[in-house]
Amino acid sequence: MMRILMKNFTDQPPTNPEYHFSNDLHQFITGKRLLPDELPFTKDLIMHHHQNGYLQFNYGVKDFTCNRCGNKDRELFASFHCARCGKECGYCRKCIQMGRVSECTPLISWSGPMLSNATNHGLLWNGTLSKGQQLASDQVVEAVQNNTSLLVWAVCGAGKTEVLFKGIEVALVKGQRVCIATPRTDVVLELAPRLQQVFPETEIAVLYGGSEDRTKNAALTIATTHQLIRYYRAFDTIIIDEVDAFPYSMEPMLQHAANEARTEDGAIVYLSATPSKGMQREVRKKKLYSVVIPARYHGKPLPVPSFEWCGKWRAKLGKGRIPINVKLWIQQHYKDGKPIFLFVPDIELLKKVVGILQESYADEAAGVHSKDKERKEKVERFREGKIKILVTTTILERGVTVPDVQVGVLGAEDDIFTESALVQIAGRAGRNAKFPSGDVRFFHYGKTGEMNRARNHIRMMNYWAKQGGFLHV
Ligand SMILES: [Zn+2]
Ligand SMILES: [Zn+2]
What we know:
There is one protein chain. By secondary structure, this protein is of the alpha/beta class. The chain has three domains: 6-110, no CATH class; 131-293, P-loop containing nucleotide triphosphate hydrolases (Rossmann fold); 306-374 and 381-454, P-loop containing nucleotide triphosphate hydrolases (Rossmann fold, 3-Layer(aba) Sandwich), CATH 3.40.50.300. It is built from 13 helices and 20 strands. It has helices at residues 23-29, 43-51, 131-146, 160-173, 185-198, 252-261, 277-284, 313-318, 324-335, 347-361, 375-384, 419-426, 449-468, and strands spanning 55-59, 61-62, 65-66, 77-81, 88-92, 106-110, 149-154, 178-182, 204-207, 220-224, 235-240, 262-272, 289-293, 306-309, 340-343, 365-368, 389-392, 406-410, 440-444, 471-472. It has an eight-stranded mixed β-sheet with strand order 9-10-8-11-12-7-13-20. A six-stranded parallel β-sheet has the order 14-19-18-15-17-16, sandwiched between helices. Helix 3 (131-146) runs parallel beside helix 4. The longest helix is centred in the last third of the chain and has 20 residues, at 449-468. The structure holds zinc ion (2 copies).
């Protein structure tokens, strides 16, 4: 372990322009704030760079504040007898999973000049944007140029990735660094090849738990929101996709990280089909500028869910039966050869439902949940039509697109099915231009406010779409 203690580094020496700094070190650390142990360089090299003003050392933890994750909650600090500083040393428990930050540990960042990384960042894409997409794309470009904040509120299936292309190009051509962050690894893995295709000359760093690209200091970074915690004033533009999705919405630490990772006057673009109530409030108060795309790219309205009472379905499942109307609904779509998504509240119920369905449909029925190691394979088999009925928890509420899928929710009154979850679930149907409609059915034992709000939300978007295809808020 490298013994670099904070106490030695209270003063920042001026930058010595004569000093030949290490380009490797520069590339590695620029835009980040790292612990000594995260730097694969010798202590001497690090010290020389500090003494010549090229590396800055900041307190990791001081006065019950963690300068990496922003934690100020006293209960989330602890202390231990530290072998490095020889004292009782306080540390942050909140971000301990990223390596321990204690009172004697410095956070190291680059303070020397920045090298430009100008290359040819042309956009290679000749698709057409819908009217709503075009308006949103113009707003993204404006946010990038004026370094402002913007919420792109785009319904499921609006085609929000294409809306980003122009803005990203504008930023890259200016020599800026751009980061697209999203709470989910699946989305990172989906976006990376897509963006590499349209920005073929641009180096892209792809970061998620366990990824290899950690050292890359690329012009375009695609990362899970968790990874942002290592970055400091790194990105001129940060785009946060699915800003309302767990765990980002739950986690002030990640919001802090996003704010710290962008340059002081950097642009920030939020994308969501279902922005949180807090964010909608900011929009209404004009604190956050927003552009809404209420129409899907194919121009057809979003399928509106219908509600169907299905009695005491939990008790029925306990007796090895599925409510009769749910059973008939599945039978009908199965006979018509349509793929069926059935959402249930939790893993235990999922196992019961799958067990019952397999009595009739054998391995044409399957279940997926967050702890399922075969998740990817099963979704793939569902896409290929080998699995006809896929029972799932909310894990698949976003991102999965299967043409002509029919969508049911069993137990839609459960607390897990919030307005935003139900809107996302309904948004799985009718995405494909060839199959723009779909049956969305919420089976319940007592309607909830969330169910009503979800249906109203969808109707409202369809109404706005009919009025003109886009909307300014
Ligand atoms: Zn911390
Ligand atoms: Zn210590």
